[in-house]
Amino acid sequence: MAKKTFIYILILSVASIPLGFAQGYTIEANGAKLHYKIFGKGEPLLIINGGPGMNSNGFAEMAKNLAENYQTIIYDQRGTGQSILSNRDHTAVTMDWMVKDMEALRKYLKLEEWTLLGHSFGGMLAYYYATKHPERVKAMIQSSSGGMDLALLSLINLRDKLSEMEWDSLQHYQSQLNEGDTSYATQLKRGEFMAPAYLYNRKHIPVLAERLTQGDSQLNGWVWADLRKINFDTKETLSSFEKPVLIIHGRNDLLDEAVAETAHQILPNSQLELLDRCAHYGWLDRPDVYYKLIDTFMSHIN
């Protein structure tokens, strides 16, 4: 079961074409060194990448684009990228610790509140943060979010998004990985046959496939085990969350749009936007529409 979890869920985190860089900084908090980058000036917008088990490098392009109007912040979640754990085991990688890290970063940056943009698993983490610190959330943007609970586990349609050849090839290379062949070449081939499930515009497959080689399967498993342990479900708590929430979801996403529709029904001040010709990465498949929706939303809340 753990191996299937890695196949079907890890790449909810895969991201974008790295473009543009900002100076990186590191703070020490909660037994970890947390690495972050800041782009631009203006209203603070924390971009929470998906995963779990992926660094934030792939979100630099999004951060740079949005930094034309806002101060965007990306960070490596604990145990990923340059965010190093002093004690790397399952007890150090939980949803509660990740929320504490976000709070440590907010306090260090001396921000009273910020807007959260959570993509995929990052959306789940944003929801969880909002249950713990609602007064610190000015607004939320949920981008192809994993949702408010664990319903996504039965709403991921990876097989249906791949051709028979792609599916068979994916199974072949995943089997090689499971049997101990963790070479870069094998990981890249698996990525090449997995990536089409997450994209409407297939020209991005090479970049996405390479990004998929960077996932940490051990950390991924720890976080999903914790999500099950705490029976992750934010619906009841956030049913009274009055802050503005923008929910963006592709109609061609392998995550069923029911995930987004459920959130829209529960969140009293939410706006749902379903994008045609768009899968899991709105800023890749429909960048014009995706960024315009965010800019319009941000202008209204500010």
TrEMBL record:
<keyword id="KW-0378">Hydrolase</keyword>
<dbReference type="GO" id="GO:0006508">
    <property type="term" value="P:proteolysis"/>
</dbReference>
<feature type="domain" description="AB hydrolase-1">
    <location>
        <begin position="44"/>
        <end position="286"/>
    </location>
</feature>
<dbReference type="InterPro" id="IPR050471">
    <property type="entry name" value="AB_hydrolase"/>
</dbReference>
<dbReference type="GO" id="GO:0008233">
    <property type="term" value="F:peptidase activity"/>
</dbReference>
<dbReference type="InterPro" id="IPR000073">
    <property type="entry name" value="AB_hydrolase_1"/>
</dbReference>
<dbReference type="InterPro" id="IPR002410">
    <property type="entry name" value="Peptidase_S33"/>
</dbReference>
<dbReference type="InterPro" id="IPR029058">
    <property type="entry name" value="AB_hydrolase_fold"/>
</dbReference>
<dbReference type="Pfam" id="PF00561">
    <property type="entry name" value="Abhydrolase_1"/>
</dbReference>
<protein>
    <submittedName>
        <fullName>Alpha/beta fold hydrolase</fullName>
    </submittedName>
</protein>
<comment type="similarity">
    <text>Belongs to the peptidase S33 family.</text>
</comment>
